[in-house]
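Supplementary Methods, section 5.1.

A reviewer requested that the exact input to the structure prediction be made available. We therefore reproduce it here, unchanged from the version used in the analyses.
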Amino acid sequence: MGDDAPAGLDTSTVHPARRYNYWLGGKDHFAADRESGDQIEQAHPTIRLAARENRAFLQRAVRHLAADAGIDQFLDIGTGLPTADNTHEVAQRANPAARVVYVDNDPMVMAHARALLSSSDQGRTCYIEEDLREPGTILAHPQLRDTLDLSRPVGLTLVAVLHFIEGQDRARAIVAELLSALAPGSYLTLSHGTVDFATEQEKAYARQVPGVHLRSRDQIAAFFTGLDLIEPGIVPVAHWRPGIPADQLPTPHDIAIYGAVGRR
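The structure derived from this sequence is encoded token-by-token as follows.
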């Protein structure tokens, strides 16, 4: 897309979904997103690797839930811009009848929503333009209610999105409200940026990045209160069921994102 923006879209303000798309090597970003992405990359040179590993974690987690845990419904909040192997593509390869609701607050995602709606014949997908900060609005949305059966288990994914919510109590309340609406046997797949592995200089820089609120492992563990963590628990995303030898994995410092899956 380059710098050709949909009508009415503010391209002067950085949006995390577009910055993330830039790091992943996509084309749906603007000068402000690239400038912000480059500044962060100067302080954290492996940020592009971290973005790819985070995406791979999401795909492995969804594959496990759809293929092994019997989950055939997914609520993906903080979807981001479409790329290869979106949640519904991974889930429907394991179970063609899987249903997925995507939620994001970037209007550009809506402009590309057709890529998120290419469901299998047996399954179904929909896209809702809403904000994680309003979980009640998401849960009450007619399209969500028409697509998912909340009386049955759902796979909730909050991947690299909660670190844009300021305040630990507020973030915990959002997660709790979402989980409380889901049936027993539902799963939470979550990844979150951290400074646990950072140098003091990196920590100081991280505190200056607008809108980003990195958390410790203990703070991230609090989002899973009342859930049963599945193996291997809360680990750097590259280390969550990677399928390759441990000595080939990137370091926790290079990735700086925790990931985990828990069962309600």
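The longest helix spans residues 47-67. These observations are discussed further in the main text.
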